[in-house]
Amino acid sequence: MDDGKRVLEAGTERSIKSLGDWLRKVEAIGELQRITGEVDPVLEASTITYLSGKTIGGPTLLFENLKGHPGGRLLFNPFGSSLNRVAITIREAPGKIAIELVRILSGKMKERMLPKRVDARTAPVNQNIEQGEQVDVTQFPAPKHWPLDGGKYIGTADAVITRDPTNDRINLGTFRQMIQGPKQVGFYSSPGKDATLDRERWWAMGKPAPVAAAYGLEPLLFLTAATSFPKDVSEYEFAGGINGAPIEVFESDVTGLLLPAHAEIIIEGFSYPGQTAPEGPFGEFTGYYGRPGGATPYIDIKAIRHRDKPILTGALMSDYPANECGTMWAMAKAAKVWNDLNAMGVPGIKGVWSPPEAAGWGMTVVSIEQRYAGHAAQVGALAAQCMGGAY
Q1: Is 70 exceeded by the pLDDT of residue 2?
Q2: Which sign does the torsion angle of CA 16, 263, 161, 388 carry?
Q3: Is-contact 304 129, C-beta < 8 A?
Q4: CA nearest neighbour of 35 among 80, 66, 58, 56
Q5: How far is the C-alpha of 374 from the C-alpha of 382, rounded, in Å?
Q6: What pLDDT, on a 0 to 100 scale, did the predictor assign at position 359?
């Protein structure tokens, strides 16, 4: 047994609560590269990540000396193209093949656990709380990924947290967030996404939408935030099921949202109806620029919470394998589609895969034991339209 497997198997599921816990396990298997020389977060960090990521299974990169940000740290591509880091994230030993990990993750997605509320005073992310004139999101080393990007993007490997005002369901989603100024970040989310529906419901009531964004997440929360789950269930519950223990959260005294106690950084505030700012463009996971820049809602930041010397997480958007989204989204999407097909009672499913070369979204492959006329066509239609497949 190698050291990495021994480190993972010696603990329990509850041994990973934070990004720091996860990094120690990743470093133990030799897949964390610390970069101590000075690096500019504008274009240079992303360029190094892109070149490093061209090697399949290359390490996650922790930049510890960022130009203009003394004490700031930036972790790029927690997953990258590494199956071992996916395994650690879903609480499994490294060394498993892709289809085995998909099968395991699909099974774990069937489990749900409500989050565990803890006292805000004990939450590590509340080591520092800044409000009012102290609020300045530019203190963090947000990177500019590509030359034509509209600005610095603090939110890529993130979880944007919203609440449905009609039933108080908490949603976690992964969306890009461009810094607009010291007290504002973009709140872009695609049409039909839960965060979009949540804020529109608040606005329809004539009220601002409470919203938070967590950075420096333990990657399990990043994975679940980036996965399509039912709209009436919180991603906290699915993360708890995969974790094998409830996710620890606390209730914010600013927005009333439930926030991850072990995050590195959290911003929170409100998004007001009719208030927008220019956002984008942004080099996307396809390796091209997608949606052009335009007027976008933003978050008016009321509070920043962070640990001492926090780590900001970033997800590079590019062509595979340097793309952070490819392997992680491939695993998550395939596992969710497999789970959905089983839940619908479709027989004969032998395996599901989403090729990471298509960043996990462009293609879904389902292997079946064909048992009746029309079986394959039925599976294809359902795989395309189930919750996990209908991105």
Answers
A1: no
A2: negative
A3: yes
A4: 66
A5: 12
A6: 59
Predicted local confidence at residue 151, as pLDDT = 97
On the question of a cis peptide bond just before residue 355, with omega within 30 degrees of 0, the verdict is no
Which percentage of the chain shows pLDDT scores above 90?
87
Rounded Cα distance, 385 and 328, in Å:
21
Each residue of 267-281: b (16+ CB within 10 Å) or e? bbbbbbbeeeeebbb
Tell me the β-bridge partners of 267: 213, 304
pLDDT for residue 78 is more than 90 = yes
CA distances to 270, 376, 386, 387 from 343, rounded to whole Å, are 37, 17, 10, 11
d(CA 81, CA 56): 6
DSSP letter for each residue of 354-374? --GGGTTTS--EEEE---STT
Asked whether the predicted pLDDT for residue 14 surpasses 70, the reply is no
pLDDT at residue 357 tops 50: yes
Helix axes 19-28, 3-10, angle to 10 degrees: 150
CA distance 139 to 258: 24
Q: Would you say residue 8 has pLDDT above 70? A: no
Sign of CA dihedral 44, 360, 298, 70: negative
- Number of C-alpha atoms within 13 angstroms, CB side, residue 289? 11
Q: Are strands 32-35 and 60-63 parallel, antiparallel or unpaired?
A: parallel
Confidence tier at 363 by pLDDT (50, 70, 90) = confident
pLDDT at 93 over 70: yes
